[in-house]
C-alpha cells in the first residue's frame, strides 16, 4: 500500500530534477537565457507555465477548502479569476511581449518600467524590485505552507516510523526540491516543469471530483443537498454587494502578477500569444471547475460517511488517501506538489531576477559578466527561499490568507501601472512612481487596519493607484513621451 504511493512521488521528484538538468545544459549561459529562456517559449509551454505558476497550492487546497466550508458562493472567486485572466491575455500579453523587447530588451518587469519611463528609471527599478521581493517572500511562504500541510497530513499513514510528517520538515523538503531545479535550470527549467505540472494538475482535477461523486464508495453525486449548511449549493446565499465585489475583484490581480506576466515576455513571438491564450484559458476553465467540484462533492462525501476533517484545506489530501489505489494516490499527491512547486519556482526566479538585475547590476556591479550575473541570480533565489521559510514557519498559517494578501499587493501595485504603461502614451514617470507607491501603501494600510474583513484590499488599492497615476501624469505631462532607454 505505502510502497506504490512512495514510488509515484519518487518518480515525480526525479522527473523534476531531470528537467532542471536538461534546462541547465540548454539555456543558462546568459542572463536572457537564465531569466527568460531566450524568449523562445512554445505557446503551449508558455500557456501552461502561466497557468500552473498562477494557481499554486491554492487551486487544490485553498479554493476547495473555501467551498468545502462555505458552499458554492465561494465559486465567485474562481469566476472573477477566470475573467481577469482572459482580459489579461487580451490586453497585456501581446503588448508586453512586443514592448518589452522593443524597449531595451527588458528582462524583468522593473527593467521594462525603467525603460518605458527613463526619467524615473532608478526610482521605478528600486521601488518595484523592493515590492516584488517583499510580496514574493509572503507569496512563496503560502506555497511552503501548503507543502508543510501535505507532509503533515499525508505522510503519517505512509511512514509512521519516519518523522516525515513534521510540518517544518515538509517545508524544507518542498523548498529543497524546488531550489534544486530552479537554481540549476533557471527560467527554462521552471517553464518546462510548469508545463508537466500543469498537465498533472489537469488530470487530477478532472479525476478527483468524478471519483468522489460516482466512484465505488463515493456516491456523493446524489447527496449534495444533504450538507447541513443553509444554501450550500447557492451562488448567492449570504452574499452581500461588498462580498461579491471582494470575490470577483480577485480577477484584478492578474494584471500585476510579475510571475505570470513575465511569461508573456518569453513567448516566442507576438503572433504566438493568441494560441497560448486559447490553451491557457481552456486549461484554467477545466481546472477551476474541477476545484469547485472537489470542494462541493468532498463536503457531501464527508457528511455522508460521518467523517471529521479538521482543516478544510486538506480535503484533497484526505480523499486522495481514502479513495484511490496507492499508485494513484501518489500521482494525486504529486499533482498537489506540482501545484505548489510550479508557483514557488516561478516566484523565486522572478524575485531573484529583480535582486540581480535591479539591485546588484544597477548599484553594485554594472559591468558584471553574464556568468557572474547568473550565479548571483542563483544565490538570490536561495536567499528569498530562506526568508519565505521563516515566514511559513507558523503551522497555523492559512494558504488562502497568505495568497490573498500577496495577490492584492501585486495587483494594486503593478496592475494599473502595467495596463496604463502599455496603453496610455501620456502616462509619465512621475505618475508611474505615484501609482506604485500609492497602490502598495493602500493595500498595506487596509490590511493593517483590519478592513479586509468587509472589503478585499485589492479593490481600494487598485482604484487608488489608477487615480494616482492619472492625476500625477496629467499634472506632469509635458507634451512628448520621454525617449525610451535602450539598455
UniProtKB/TrEMBL annotation:
The membrane topology of this protein is:
Multi-pass membrane protein
Look up the domain of life of the source: Bacteria
The UniProt record lists the keyword Ion transport? yes
Q: Offer an example of a GO molecular function term for this protein.
A: L-proline transmembrane transporter activity
Chief location of this protein within or outside the cell: membrane
User: Would you tell me the Gene Ontology cellular component terms?
Assistant: plasma membrane
Read off the InterPro entries from this record. Na/Glc_symporter_sf, Na/Pro_symporter, Na/solute_symporter, Na/solute_symporter_CS, Sodium:Solute_Symporter
Task: Indicate where this protein resides in the cell.
Answer: Cell inner membrane; Cell membrane
- Annotated keywords: Amino-acid transport, Cell inner membrane, Cell membrane, Ion transport, Membrane, Sodium, Sodium transport, Symport, Transmembrane, Transmembrane helix, Transport
Q: Some GO term, biological process aspect, for this entry: which one?
A: proline transport
The protein's annotated catalytic reaction(s) are:
L-proline(in) + Na(+)(in) = L-proline(out) + Na(+)(out)
Instruction: Give the transmembrane ranges.
Output: 6-24, 75-93, 122-147, 167-192, 199-218, 238-257, 278-302, 322-355, 376-393, 405-424, 431-448, 454-472
Functional note = Catalyzes the sodium-dependent uptake of extracellular L-proline.
Q: Which family does it belong to?
A: Belongs to the sodium:solute symporter (SSF) (TC 2.A.21) family.
Could you identify this protein by its name?
Sodium/proline symporter
Organism lineage reads as:
Bacteria, Pseudomonadati, Pseudomonadota, Alphaproteobacteria, Sphingomonadales
